[in-house]
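Me: Here is a favour to ask of a fellow structure person. Could you put it straight underneath, so I can go through it closely?

Assistant:
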Amino acid sequence: MSKITGFLEQPRVKEKYQPVDARLKNYAEFVLPLAGESAQKQAVRCMDCGIPFCNNGCPVGNIIPDFNNLVYGNDWLSAIETLHSTNNFPEFTGRICPAPCEAACTLNINDDAVGIKSIELAIIERAWQEGWVRPQPPQVKTGKTVAVIGSGPAGMAAAQQLARAGHAVTVFEKNDRVGGLLRYGIPDFKMEKHHIDRRVTQMEAEGVTFRTGVLVGAWDKKSTVTNLARSTVTPDELRAEFDAVLLSGGAEQPRDLPVPGRELDGVHFAMEFLPGQNRVNAGDKLKKQLRAGGKHVVVIGGGDTGSDCVGTSNRHGAAGVTQFEVMPQPPEHENKPLVWPYWPLKLRTSSSHEEGVTREFAIATKEFVGQGGKLTGVKTVRIELVDGHLKEIEGSEEIHQAELVLLAMGFVSPVGSVIDAFGIHKDTRGNALAGTEEGGGYVTNLPGVFAAGDMRRGQSLVVWAIREGRQAARSIDQYLMGTSVLPR
């Protein structure tokens, strides 16, 4: 490293946010990224630690000490080349990744971790400003064709890698715009969608064809998953037209809460709520947008999706927002000697939480109550963890006022109709069954049909989707050509 004592001299400086009252007035990003000298000062904190556990903590294997050192040395062009060598879309991960690399940082043992995520974002934003992010079309076309089903981060990463290897790639997306859950799952205040659009422009210049509004297979009309398809293709048609097919759709099947009163008007899945606002932000006119304005909102689920519902509800002007989590409140600070370098269990307070919410832990929903078919409240009971099991506390029942309940308890699987239409074997969780081994990984029971991202591993992070898309691209390239120069 350029200055091995930097971590002793420079404290961590985090990215700043716009004030709450200002950011609640719109749906724009409000994080003020580090830039220039500020990012260099943070990069100097990277230690000469010998074994960079951060590399291991990062699912895409970012070469973190190298790009930190390059930023400190003001060599931003080499920094983005290093970053792009492992990550196709650092502007996505630099905004919405929870940064497991920072949890694994050696400095995190007894100090604040290096601000790796903020440095990553500074690198890619500098690269876009300088015009360094350019299309990389292949010099030679292979004549092979690949269909990618799903245009989320896994599908986009795979498509870009395969196109650069010389294959003709067509990406099929059931909705009207490219991006998958990045487009219609992540709120704009966390990631504005022009970041996706400029990558689509780059990929089209590299030879990728995007076909939006196209559904592959059948569709369950009772499904609440967003489906804006205008046409349909069958698996047989795809397999006849393309040399290889990759299934890379997201895990969109939400976990339900089948308690009494579930049928009441006012109880909805989070993914009935969040995509609508993103579509309105994009200029769409919706006949019946689900809104939280003036309502007492209860969000059931303490994860990122629940947090997104909190932030969106507050921007709608909700009368009040309460978030339920069934598990007990975790400690504010992790036991670092016990858990480092692994992802720790600790209380996480998001920017949306800071905007206004009442958080309730160790609470379970017993019933949705209402009048005239409309939701008026949620009956709950307090619970405790006894010998590893959740147990209700007798006499702790209460009713919380609510005109809108948003179910944000995670996702159980991808949309099963796509997997079923191909006749692909599933694992016990309903995901497409495929391994990850080098040479033949990501292939399903059908020759030439592959699966990656949420479609294969279930609900996960954007950074894992990018990793799986890249690795699946290498496996597909090997299948088509017998060998591959794509990185694993």
The first strand starts at residue 16 and ends at 17. The chain has a mean pLDDT of 96. The longest helix spans residues 462-481. The chain is about 35% helix and 20% strand.
